[in-house]
Amino acid sequence: MFTAEIKSKANEDICILIKVENHSYNYICECGEAKDLSVKECQNTNAIFISHTHIDHFVNFDTILRHQIGIQRKVVIVGPMGIIDQVQHRIKSYNWNLIEEGSITYEVREIQSLNQFRTITLEPPLWEKQNEQTINNSPIFVKKNFKVEYEILDHKTDSIAYLFKGNNKTKIKLTSEMKGGKWAGDLIRAYNTKSNNQIINYEGGNVKAKELYHLINIEKGKSLGLIMDHAANDSNHNLILRKFEACDKVLIECFYKNEDKELAIKNAHSYAAKSGEIMKRCKVKQAIPVHFSRKYKEDEIEELVKQFEFANNKP
Known about the structure:
This protein is α/β, with parallel strands linked by helices and about 325 residues long. The protein contains 9 helices and 18 strands. Helix 8 runs parallel beside helix 9.
């Protein structure tokens, strides 16, 4: 359901483009330098998810902004504490005397805690904060077929890890002797709305929905995780395990080689072995290491990836 494309090269920062099956828009995760991110992809983006605003995760925001001006619709920006002021200040640093009203609207959602976020809108030409709200106990982003959840990790600052989660699908287990039809749709709706006593016209008779629930099959929705910069410690790993266990695919930061473990500890980053180990603990079906230190050459990155895979596949 979810396709993740890494738009940054190994010697650039980090930027990931998420595409959703049968969905019109893209989703950008991280605004690092990424020359492979096209103008069209920026313009077709529905929301931007930022883990934290260190320069290598936020430097390319202005380029994305430049390409989105004029699309005449709302774009959501999600990020940690401080993201509202940071986005507003970046935008207001430019002169907007020629922009037309309605060129774009940004809704910025600032994560305050695990169960609370603050939201405001910014519109040209003045880009002042409007429609401020505090939202409690709600997913940070919801569309018809999926939602986005999050966990707050420690990187000596809040670093938001995101989970794209497809909705479960309710289906009917048809045998060769059975025929689909209106009854099947009625049964699925009854099951989803817990209308257990709804009458279903099934094979020429009237049957209560609950008596046909044995025909229901629940297809679990697909999941995609994005875990960026975080200290490789027990506290973060417990949070990762809680949110990303049994995930279909996870892209996880792997900033340092094992030999640079001390640098990782000093800078509150993860390193190959620890990123691989936590993915193994989570029983992730496909774990992909991303976001390597720019100090490494190509052969060193290849060695880092091998270290990650060894830890992830270790018996």
